[in-house]
Amino acid sequence: MHVREPVASLRTSTRGASMSQPDRGMFMVRKYKQDRWYWPELGNLADAEQASNAGSWAAVFCAAVTAIVAAISMFSGKSILGINAMAFGDAAVFAVIAWRIRARSKSFAVIGLVLFILEKIYQFATQPQVLGFGLFMAIILTLAFASGVRGTFAYHRMREALALERAAAQEA
Fold first, then answer.
1. Tens digit of pLDDT for each residue in 11-58?
2. Among candidates 77, 68, 70, 10, which has minimal Cα distance to 42?
3. pLDDT score for 83
4. Helix (H, G, I), strand (E, B) or coil at 112
5. DSSP collapsed to 3 states, 1-27
6. How far apart are CA 45 and CA 144, in angstroms?
7. pLDDT tens readout for residues 48-64
8. What is the model's pTM?
9. Which ranges of the chain does DSSP label H, i.e. alpha helix?
């Protein structure tokens, strides 16, 4: 199978690249482990999808943890770290955000990042006892949501370039 290299200005890394992956136009698919999980390189569609998926998994994590703590709060009858049974709505919102980020929605990727940051600001202002481990987790999840935004936008940019390339090839 013939595999084309991506345009040099768009390629950022080839370390560990598998050359046996299928061709997707000028953005060859390469599955490999990123050197920086916290700010991945976005040189091809696979990288963009992987970064976008990080945002989706961050939203799944938020939805799951919120639902679990809300359930514990509901059954215990008392608020846990400011989370009560009303947080099931928040969990549902993050579940929808995860689903839409996974579908490569740019708007939901941005909404997920902004909503997460706003919720963390509110939580740290009203529940200062969670600043220790909570701040650490907030930084990691914020980076994952930011990767989701970057990956989703890069995915659409690369898909558009691929469509333009294919249209130009058909005209030639």
1. 344 444 443 444 445 554 555 566 677 788 888 999 999 999 999 999
2. 10
3. 84
4. helix
5. CCCCCCCCCCCCCCCCCCCCCCCCCCC
6. 18
7. 999 999 999 999 999 99
8. 0.78
9. 45-76, 87-102, 106-126, 131-171
- In this structure, how many other beta carbons lie within 10 angstroms of the beta carbon of residue 171? 6
Which of 87, 111, 90, 89 minimizes the C-alpha distance to 100?
A: 111
Which tokens hold the place of 29?
A: 């698919």
Q: Which residue has better confidence, 84 or 25?
A: 84
Give the Cα-Cα-Cα angle 38, 11, 39 (nearest 5 degrees).
Answer: 5
145 pLDDT exceeds 80? yes
Q: Which SS3 state, helix, strand or coil, does residue 83 take?
A: strand
- Alpha-carbon Rg for the chain, nearest whole angstrom, is 20
Angle at 38 between CA 32 and CA 42, to 5 degrees: 50
Structure tokens at 105: 């929605």
Pick from 156, 169, 165: nearest CA to 51:
156
The answer to whether residues 33 and 129 touch, using CB atoms and an 8 Å cutoff, is no
* DSSP letter string, 37-52: SSS----SHHHHHHHH
CA 70, 75, 77: angle at the middle one, nearest 5? 90
